[in-house]
Design brief:
514 residues, mainly alpha
Length: 514
């Protein structure tokens, strides 16, 4: 029987405490009002815009005054010419001269009044244009501030969501791998079944936490899912979105949360019954419980492959409901499936290093490493296929997904490809390296972190936009769920012997050599 070491237990608790403190800090430090965001915007704003407007207004006024001065100068020249002509005629009387001068004065007065009217009208029009521009700018700033507020408030929620769904689906990857081994009647893997069952013990805990997060989204505690916003399906609302309204028959909270409940209950039910049958098989006198598991696993895989695709649409792709991909369900599956297999390998190597799992040999580690290598290549094939087809077709509704990630998430987007393909491909392509524990563990750490970044790339662009960075909220969420995962998994491993007793293929598995 396995005993949970106090040192590892303390590490798990420390991770959870540190993570919880960081999560709370992330929520407390997020801006609460639009005024908080405006202060942030003011700190980053440049001060030259208004002075430029004033300069433009001053130039327009100078131009108008300049025109008025020119007209007054022309009027004075005409008056002087008339005065000279009148003076040059000796037959003219002084009365005619005075009358002429009086007419010139009246003309000049009229011209001055006219010029003043033009200047006043021009100044009034300029003032109105400036006023309208100021109002439009203020409206734009207010709208931008509110949008930025939602993004910054989403940041701790999105960080929590990414870490939670990553460990949940990682566990589902292990459960799917376990079911495949049952249905395939694999002879090499039964010595690893209790490791897989220990890892899947995290599924009930993760399911409860994740379902609560989904409920909080539905109750508008956060803004992770834009299709849940008020008025998006109401044609009379300013928030109306015709595309989302067209999907409202599928994307509505009642139907959405019902699907989530069915999926989580179905997965947990299979996990509970399969482990129960596996433990009962140890004390049985025949293979009846093994046969029950075989049939149940076949049915579960059918349910899983359908529910997994819908889950990927509901929980990940719907954060950006304007975009869709027919490959997305398979892409998400490849990501968490290889993460699950990698976790099996790393937990196995840890237990082996502590003197447990004496029947696990280098051939078992080699086969797990082959799966890590093969599914990493499969993930890359799906990544490239999805990217290449959308890039080649160049449809605006589709390319926006990759445009956002390449422009705003360039480092994590292409960094995930390096961690999830380039590194494991170069390291694990060598057959001998697949058996060396430090190399396999090193590759596993990179793969797991790479696929966490992959989930980060799937969710963050639609929830926080360009306000992303890996800070306290992201690190704390990852630490909390890692600590919780370690605590639950290694506690579960203490509940039963690490080697099944009466599995029909257990002897073949004990003597497996590649």
């Amino acid at each position: 029987m396995y005993t949970f070491p106090n040192k590892l237990r303390n590490i798990a608790f420390a991770l959870m405490v540190l993570g919880l403190i960081g999560i709370v800090y992330g929520f407390l430090s997020a801006p609460k009002t639009v005024q908080d965001v405006e202060k942030i915007m003011e700190e980053n704003a440049h001060g030259g815009h208004h002075s430029g407007a004033k300069h433009e207004s001053h130039s327009e006024t100078t131009h108008v005054v300049g025109e008025t001065t020119h007209e007054e100068h022309a009027t004075n020249e005409n008056a002087e010419a008339k005065h000279e002509n009148e003076t040059a005629k000796p037959a003219d009387s002084l009365k005619n001269v005075v009358a002429a001068n009086h007419e010139v004065v009246e003309d000049t007065t009229v011209a001055e009044e006219s010029n003043l009217d033009v200047a006043a009208v021009t100044a009034h029009d300029t003032k109105e244009v400036k006023s309208e521009a100021t109002v439009d700018h203020a409206d734009h700033e207010a709208e931008h501030a509110e949008h930025m507020l939602h993004q910054l408030q989403n940041k701790p929620w999105a960080a929590l969501y990414v870490a939670c769904i990553f460990f949940l689906l990682l566990t589902m990857g292990v459960l799917a791998f376990y079911a495949i081994q049952q249905v395939a009647q694999a002879g090499w893997s039964p010595v690893l079944f209790r490791v897989m069952q220990g890892i899947t013990a995290y599924l009930p805990v993760a399911s409860v936490i994740f379902f609560v997060l989904l409920l909080l989204s539905g109750f508008h505690v956060n803004h992770l899912f834009v299709w849940m916003n008020d008025g998006v399906t109401d044609p009379n609302s300013p928030n109306y979105d015709a595309l989302i309204a067209g999907k409202s028959g599928y994307l509505n909270f009642a139907f959405w949360i019902s699907r989530a409940a069915i999926f989580l209950l179905g997965w947990n039910l299979y996990r509970y019954l399969s482990r129960k049958n596996c433990l009962a098989q140890d004390e049985a006198t025949d293979n009846s419980f093994y046969k029950k598991n075989f049939k149940m696993s076949a049915g579960f895989l059918v349910f899983f492959i359908v529910s997994e695709s819908i889950m990927a649409w509901d929980w990940i792709m719907s954060v950006d409901p304007h975009w869709f991909s027919t490959l997305f369900g398979w892409y998400v599956f490849a990501s968490f499936f290889v993460s699950g297999i990698t976790t099996i390998s790393m937990v196995t190597l840890y237990l082996k290093s502590k003197g447990y799992l004496e029947n696990v040999n280098s051939s078992h580690i080699h086969d797990l490493s082959k799966f890590m290598f093969g599914i990493s290549v499969f993930w890359t094939y799906l990544w490239f296929s999805q990217f290449m087809l959308i890039w080649y077709s160049n449809i605006p509704e589709e390319v926006t997904y990759f445009k956002t990630r390449i422009e705003q998430f360039n480092l994590p987007f292409f960094g995930a490809v390096v961690m999830n393909f380039v590194f494991p491909f170069l390291v694990l392509i060598n057959t001998d390296f697949k058996r060396i524990a430090p190399i396999v563990v090193g590759a596993g750490v990179v793969i797991l972190f790479g696929h966490y970044i992959d989930f980060f790339n799937m969710i963050m662009p639609a929830t926080v936009g360009d306000q992303w960075f890996i800070g306290i909220s992201e690190i704390a969420s990852l630490l909390f769920f890692l600590g919780l995962f370690i605590f639950v998994v290694f506690t579960a491993l203490t509940k039963a012997p690490l080697t099944p007793k009466r599995n029909p293929f257990i002897e073949e598995s004990k003597h497996f050599h590649y």
